[in-house]
Amino acid sequence: MNPYTSYATGEPIADTKAPKGPIAERWDTRRFEAKLVNPANRRKHTVIVVGTGLAGGSAGATLAEQGYHVVQFCYQDSPRRAHSIAAQGGINAAKNYRNDGDSVHRLFYDTVKGGDFRARESNVHRLAQISVQIIDQCVAQGVPFAREYGGLLDTRSFGGVQVSRTFYARGQTGQQLLLGAYQALSRQIAAGNVEMHPRTEMLDLVVVDGRARGIVARNLVTGEITTHVADAVVLASGGYGNVFYLSTNAMNSNATAIWRAHRRGAYFANPCFTQIHPTCIPRTGDHQSKLTLMSESLRNDGRIWVPRAPGDTRPPNEIPEEERDYYLERIYPSFGNLVPRDIASRAAKNVCDEGRGVGPGGQNRRGGAAGSPVEGGGGRREGVYLDFADAIRRMGRKKVEEKYGNLFDMYERITAENPYEVPMRIYPAVHYTMGGLWVDYDLQTTVPGLFAIGEANFSDHGANRLGASALMQGLADGYFVLPSTINDYLARVPALEPVTGDHPAVAGAVAETEDRLRRLLAVDGDRTPDSFHRELGELMWDRCGMARSDRGLREALDRIPEIREEFWRRVRVPGTGEELNQSLEKANRVVDYLELAELMCLDALHRTESCGGHFREESQTPDGEAARKDEEFSYAAAWEFTGTGRAPVLHKEDLVFEYVHPTQRSYA
Ligand SMILES: Cc1cc2nc3c(=O)[nH]c(=O)nc-3n(C[C@H](O)[C@H](O)[C@H](O)COP(=O)(O)OP(=O)(O)OC[C@H]3O[C@@H](n4cnc5c(N)ncnc54)[C@H](O)[C@@H]3O)c2cc1C
């Protein structure tokens, strides 16, 4: 038996900060009970913020505006190039401008249900409440949200909901929101309140006397290793979907900041909860290093279908209407093409498994879980149509262009097919990670003084994130939640001893980092870091992707340590550590993926239920839908690190549902 799977179960953890009382009053109560730091004292505190995406950018700007001294990091050349800039479709808010029955409670309800009842009610309700403020804040900053004829902000619908609550700026919502946060951050940089370190990567966390007190970082241009100390550290370093190698994430998004924090004591929650997005451009071959998302907003007007008959290779416009299967509309008539992402993704996989996929076949080796009929993929066709012919007939091409023009252009540039004339082809791809560092209601991890916000934490989306909710959560965390809760930590913490570079905790973290980089350079093997990353990604997609099975996960858990061992024997990193060395950066990130992947598979193995993005083949209803096991698994799984390759300890946070009672999700 693999010793890694013999994990122990430790003390349960409780979210001790969420106040009792009516859910709608909890956030007000918490803010009132939280201690404040006197404005004059704030400038005496230094806060490190790692990341400048929507979560980090908004947090850094807001903390500096409050008077804290902020030291901020990103690995891009400019804070405004963070991965958040790629977000296309929109941001949710319970404004109810459409008067279509939306409310804070409905957004809360949809999010808890959409997350398959694996999120904490108090957090989700707060998120829904704050959503309304986010839109006001961003409008005040000048974010150019789309407007409708009457002047009100326009909205559209995203999956898993029956109201129209998604605010957008064409297909560039993330970019426009990030420019808003970036201008607020730039103001604080110019004012000297934020010390910005671009092109600098955090490689370790410094923990002194059990509290997060700083980071070890590497200047990516010169290779210089530096240390930075502070009174608190905030990780806003994004998600870890790139552990699968191919994903819709930016190429450089990685897990290092949160994984290194995990190794220093921060519990990692629900690592197996990965979101596979249904509308991505299908993979075309082995040469690819990146997948491209087509925004979920397209499902507002595009209709998804495949041929009724398996093996039908006729061009789409030669397949008559009665020989098409609009399978989402057929199986889920109430939500149709707007079912949540996990459901739409699995349905696409199912029709492709039945041999009804479209597009070129034989190129895509990625397949189903071990033992499934399509194990390894086997060259089947992986694609379904997303067809706008009806929408163009109904609204006219001009209107479709106005709504989705830039997405259509992007699709055509990548595929050389004109989606105004032939249906788009789409297939699910890894997109977002619901798992992340465990945080309490204050967004504090299990390491006092270490906070995690945005996609880096596990908090609000349960086992499946609804579309347009990541931007909402990142900005809620950064503009509103963290700036209130961090005060409480800083006000209560006993006077912190000054920490200098020769403190053993700092020197130890630096020595470990330098040693790791030296070892990577010294192997001098014959395989690139990328080749290991690709191999790991293939394994993860096959065994821990859209469908997981006991057998497949155990195989992956046996294989990952072998890849890790081979990595340390055969990796080749040219150049030196004292220069710009992207191979070294990559290798160091792969080291962390090779450990994180193991934890993801263990988490997936131990959760023998299906929920949200985690579909266990052994746990399905007779009609093939995901079957949750609430009695056994109504908890967040928070894992404690005990050493590389050593079985971690599982701590459970029981989930209590007082307002939205778990039911089998139905979108039919
Ligand atoms: C293609 C695409 C489209 C999307 N569209 C939408 C959408 O329409 N609506 C929606 O709600 N969500 C969308 N999402 C999800 C959403 O974009 C992300 O979840 C969100 O932007 C994450 O924001 P973040 O601030 O947490 O992290 P990121 O934007 O990923 O920022 C991470 C930051 O951390 C820094 N960083 C990371 N590690 C380190 C380190 N070790 N050292 C120093 N700095 C570090 C990076 O430099 C960067 O500044 C989309 C995602 C993708 C991939």
TrEMBL record:
Segments forming domain FAD-dependent oxidoreductase 2 FAD-binding: 47-471
SUPFAM superfamilies: FAD/NAD(P)-binding domain, Succinate dehydrogenase/fumarate reductase flavoprotein C-terminal domain, Succinate dehydrogenase/fumarate reductase flavoprotein, catalytic domain
Domain annotation Fumarate reductase/succinate dehydrogenase flavoprotein-like C-terminal: ranges: 533-667
Region (Disordered), start-end ranges: 1-20, 355-378
Keyword set, alphabetical order: Flavoprotein, Oxidoreductase
InterPro entries given in the database record: FAD-dep_OxRdtase_2_FAD-bd, FAD/NAD-bd_sf, Fum_R/Succ_DH_flav-like_C_sf, Fum_Rdtase/Succ_DH_flav-like_C, SdhA/FrdA/AprA, Succ_DH/Fum_Rdt_flav_su, Succ_DH/fumarate_Rdtase_cat_sf
Sequence ranges of Gly residues compositional bias: 357-377
PANTHER family, sorted: SUCCINATE DEHYDROGENASE 2 FLAVOPROTEIN SUBUNIT, SUCCINATE DEHYDROGENASE FLAVOPROTEIN SUBUNIT
NCBIfam families, per the entry: PRK07573.1, sdhA_Bsu
Protein name per UniProt: Fumarate reductase/succinate dehydrogenase flavoprotein subunit
UniProt source species: Streptomyces tamarix
